[in-house]
Specification:
Helices cover 0% and strands 56% of the residues. A hairpin with a 4-residue loop joins strand 12 and strand 13. The protein contains no helices and 14 strands.
Length: 171
């Protein structure tokens, strides 16, 4: 799974290992043998810029979650990762950043986990059903979709979700 961060750094994580790779230009990649804090089934990767309240300015942070567990990790540079927990064991499939928060969805759960910093996942929301495999943010909306269906949901804050129907040809 690949994420793109501040300054142009791209990060790729190999699921089921500690191995990853980083690139400053998306063309040349450096393998990082022990990049991740464990050999978890890393399945979701996101990036965001958030304000930690310091005078430094916005912090660039990568966040990853593993499928089938509550294992998560975060990194400010995409190279050195710190283990954390996402708070709920699930098949985490996607993480996005918007409205100054990270939002994660899992395909086998209706639980949505929310974090302001990617380190502490202390807010929980609920989707109308299981099967949501991807979440994205744009134009003031979080949108999650269910693979192979026309089902989608949207939210302005990651907490309250409204059912949407995608066009028939999009499933």
């Amino acid at each position: 799974f690949v994420g793109y961060g501040l300054g142009g750094r791209s990060v790729a994580i190999r699921s089921g290992t500690q191995t990853g790779a980083t690139s400053e230009d998306g063309i040349s990649w450096t393998t990082r043998a022990a990049m991740m804090p464990s050999s978890a089934t890393w399945n979701a990767l996101g990036h965001g810029l958030f304000d930690d309240g310091s005078s430094v300015g916005k912090i660039s942070r990568f966040v990853a979650a593993a499928s089938g567990s509550s294992t998560a990790a975060y990194s400010d540079d995409g190279i050195t990762w710190t283990s954390t927990t996402i708070g709920t064991s699930a098949a985490w499939t996607s993480i996005t950043f918007g409205e100054a928060k990270f939002v994660a969805v899992a395909s086998d759960s209706t639980t949505v986990r929310i974090s302001n910093d990617g380190e502490t996942w202390d807010v929980t929301s609920t989707l109308p059903s299981t099967g949501y495999t991807s979440v994205a943010y744009g134009m003031g909306l979080f949108v999650a979709v269910r693979t192979g269906t026309t089902n989608a949901v949207s939210s302005t804050n990651g907490l309250t979700w409204t059912a949407r129907t995608l066009p028939a040809g999009s499933a």
